[in-house]
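new request in #modeling-help
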Amino acid sequence: MEKDLAFVKEITSKKNNFSQWYVDVVRKAELADYTTIKGCMVIRPYGYGLWENMQQGLDKRIKKTGHKNAYFPLFIPENLLKKEAEHVEGFAPEVAWVTQGGNQKLDEKMAVRPTSEAIICSLYSKWIKSYRDLPLLINQWANIVRWEKTTRLFLRTTEFLWQEGHTVHKTEEDAQEETLKILFEVYRDYIENDLAIPVVVGKKTVKERFAGALNTYTLEALMSDGKVLQAGTSHNLGQNFAKAFDIKYLDEDQTEKYAWQTSWGTTTRLVGAIVMVHGDDRGLKLPPKVAPVQLVIVPITFDKSKKEVLDKAYKLCIMLGKEFRVEVDARDEYKPGWKFNEWEMRGVPLRLEIGPRDMAKEQVVLVRRDTGEKIIVKEEELAETVNSLLTEIQNNLFNQAKKFLQENIREVSDYSEFKKIIEEKKGLIRTHWCGNRDCEDKVKEETKASIRCIPFEENKIPGKCIYCGKDASTLVYFARAY
Amino acid sequence: MEKDLAFVKEITSKKNNFSQWYVDVVRKAELADYTTIKGCMVIRPYGYGLWENMQQGLDKRIKKTGHKNAYFPLFIPENLLKKEAEHVEGFAPEVAWVTQGGNQKLDEKMAVRPTSEAIICSLYSKWIKSYRDLPLLINQWANIVRWEKTTRLFLRTTEFLWQEGHTVHKTEEDAQEETLKILFEVYRDYIENDLAIPVVVGKKTVKERFAGALNTYTLEALMSDGKVLQAGTSHNLGQNFAKAFDIKYLDEDQTEKYAWQTSWGTTTRLVGAIVMVHGDDRGLKLPPKVAPVQLVIVPITFDKSKKEVLDKAYKLCIMLGKEFRVEVDARDEYKPGWKFNEWEMRGVPLRLEIGPRDMAKEQVVLVRRDTGEKIIVKEEELAETVNSLLTEIQNNLFNQAKKFLQENIREVSDYSEFKKIIEEKKGLIRTHWCGNRDCEDKVKEETKASIRCIPFEENKIPGKCIYCGKDASTLVYFARAY
């Protein structure tokens, strides 16, 4: 039994050191690994399998709302990136530049895309001529590079994977409708239902919004250490890029008009969010909808009955494999107890144990990763039970996270209480803000908490600014963030 | 009717100017477009939809043969790229270099990956310890950059998309088995069955093989202009990279051994192959298995019955949409004849026409893109007929291409005949070669034809070298290539 505890020993406890726990889990579960390239990670097959399932769920929603995928160049010449003034100011400090092609120095250096507005807008201005070409609804799955000083696996890496939507509309209203449709129908639906992560949604302050946008909307998720992670953003770009890149259309009334645009993105950092929202001291807990392996079969073999039990395990795998993502762990070199721990650490939602005694009784043992509960199931009821248990686990993970979120949103109107809570309990603080950038900056300086978002009911409840005490009509959420 | 011919007029005839025909079709069908970034194209939604279906078909086969996807960094530090001598020599001249991150000059410049052996091997050497870790079967879908002088949409672009498999094995035999499994079971099966493109397979000569490989195997496809395109390659890397990157494992016999490796790839140039193999003067002809739209419904509307016909069109779309990829073209601004041409140009395998008279008879008209044949079908038999027609079209495209390939493989033993055929008819020439690099180079110089591959039956039929006339046991295929 000594070996059985090996994983737990190798994973730092969450309470003692959350950051180290996070790194231990990500590496030990083989989601990702460091590389010798500063700030770049490798997403290992298990992590990439998770990402593929996440992509599938999100891509389905993106397509269902009328968007199509395309692929734009990796490189953006410096002059294109410079066209929208705020945009280049925001991104230039973190751009990786290609200055040499083959043995030749380039006349103009090229940015490795830190986001694709510039290159995409330059093409949209060529493609869009008439109101009939609108709306134009395009999404791209791509790699992105931002030269980061401090990096953390999945959460902040020099290169990351994402999807970026870029849409063009006839009117301001159409653009705003799209921005919110993505926020609610696509992103929130995906993050809450597939990743089992509840979110707080709202608008970013001017300080926090996307470089070049009119308004940025965000989904903020609470990690289990009390810090918040931005899970996705949806930008109403207004006409800023349309004017910089000359995106005009001939309207029905025969006049030329600048178009209205949106852009929106979510990234591989959501893998990190899954780890930090659901994981525990034993390792990962993966939501069944995105888990690369939903059920692992561990045969309990003894020399005498080994062949029969293994045969049975593979038969069950084929049967369940029609509906679920299933694997058999038939490795000889490890004992069942060791395997139990390993698959728990890897977050597989359900474990199926089958041994000679179970076979005699035509039953199997199912064990839930989320609760540890053991369930003895007759073979004939197996598929149905697995199905309902996976649904239950998915719901349970969401409900637990939702409860934790609700318990950690605190209404505060006194600044010293604010500071105490941010320091001791973290979580989200719901309070008022006068709208002044100075107050926002000061709170950040003094507490490391930033305004995560302005909720949609922003103006409904008047109050006093948490920092300066003046009348404030804007409701905001503060938190420390990743 | 004048408008109806618009597309055909805008597309250069294949016979007059094949290259221009190709570019016209790719751009007019909106598969891809040029950008202001030299050698980089944008894959537009219709082209990307095609690529997504291609990816799906190939990814399924890659996974079915036991491989898993992962994601490795975009950047490769210069010192890593230099580790395998032949490899860096082959790729260095076409590398894009990142030399600056943010405002800082980098200490060591980084290659934007021209292929990923170097970065992947550096990680494999860390991950692989025991024979139990083998085989390691990983694939990656990624973007690749090679600094090309002359570029052509899809066929040769500075940036392209691909998949690259990288596997590690215990023995030489295992690596060779994998190399051929990919060649036949994965690539040939995919290219012939999904893309309807017949291929000639074989081994590359030393001159043409992958930089750093022991042996490169290839699939060569004949385009309809008589030139050949390399459709995919599978490399047995031997122990070259294992030795350069120190990839060793502890075997069962407790001794440390260098591992054996393979790598293999196919790219977005296969989109270009689909265009050039199947297309005609009216535009694209897409194989049903990968066509983004398999059937387009064009309602034939008159003012009186417009609503009824449109309703019917959408009902049919919903019904057929359960099994097939279907679209309704309900645009008001174009006449049906114009739409017919447009969808033919875009290569949609089947068109469904429905008007008031068809409705009265409870029938629809189907039109095949490949043959132009019109088929009147009763509504109750529609789904079944569509299904069998799509299968027929898929087979017909393959059979046509297969016939063309067979007609254009010529056995030649006389060099002046060789030159005449290469100049006038092109196609593949099956002949003998002494194995001497000089002869290979001279033929290339004098005829622009290169050795595409050495077929698997290479040694069975002795003959004389096509160039020097000496005894030659090696059978080869020569052709002009893209």
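bot summary: Chain A has 15 helices and 25 strands.
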